[in-house]
């Protein structure tokens, strides 16, 4: 059965929360320390809905196995055509091409919304995510050394950008 990419619904929030919390607890993809609550995930959802920013999911055999979204890169009005995106997959579905499908859909949605550029903020040690983004035309535009701290070590943040 093929993976289906579709707009998320409130029914997807528990799976999105599980995927997010796994990334928080076991990776440096999210620089938070503590798992999020359902209330926090619902607030995130409401913000996306209020600002017209998409949340999409990857579904396989009726199960939500990944999601992607974007939001304004920075809050000032002059940044309104730039977004920063996120894509997360359940751990056992990574490396199977599902992230590529989510990224292509996010880029298409951004173009349809008249956006100009998409930014990715990635932990510098996550070489696979950096290579993944470069495969889709993202270029490294900045590196901020030791701006994050997690798992008892300093983390560098890499920014990649794609002009849509």
Automatic annotation (TrEMBL):
InterPro entries, per the entry: Acyl_CoA_acyltransferase (IPR016181), GNAT_dom (IPR000182)
Record bears the keyword Transferase: yes
Entry keywords, A to Z: Acyltransferase, Transferase
GO molecular function (one): acyltransferase activity, transferring groups other than amino-acyl groups
Domain N-acetyltransferase span(s) in chain numbering: 3-156
Catalytic activity: L-methionine sulfoximine + acetyl-CoA = N-acetyl-L-methionine sulfoximine + CoA + H(+); L-methionine sulfone + acetyl-CoA = N-acetyl-L-methionine sulfone + CoA + H(+)
Protein name as it appears in the record: Phosphinothricin acetyltransferase
């Amino acid at each position: 059965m093929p993976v289906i990419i579709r707009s998320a619904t409130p029914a997807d929030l528990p799976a999105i929360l599980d995927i997010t919390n796994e990334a928080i607890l076991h990776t440096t993809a999210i620089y938070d320390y503590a798992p999020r609550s359902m209330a926090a995930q619902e607030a995130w959802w409401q913000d996306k809905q209020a600002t017209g920013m998409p949340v999409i999911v990857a579904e396989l055999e009726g199960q939500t196995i990944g999601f992607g979204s974007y939001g304004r890169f920075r809050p000032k009005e002059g940044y309104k055509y730039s977004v920063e995106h996120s894509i997360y997959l359940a751990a056992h579905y990574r490396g199977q091409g599902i992230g590529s499908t989510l990224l292509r859909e996010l880029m298409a949605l951004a173009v349809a919304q008249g956006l100009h550029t998409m930014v990715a903020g990635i932990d510098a040690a996550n070489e696979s995510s950096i290579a993944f983004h470069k495969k889709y035309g993202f270029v490294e535009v900045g590196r901020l050394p030791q701006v994050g701290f997690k798992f008892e070590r300093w983390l560098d943040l890499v920014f990649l950008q794609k002009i849509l």
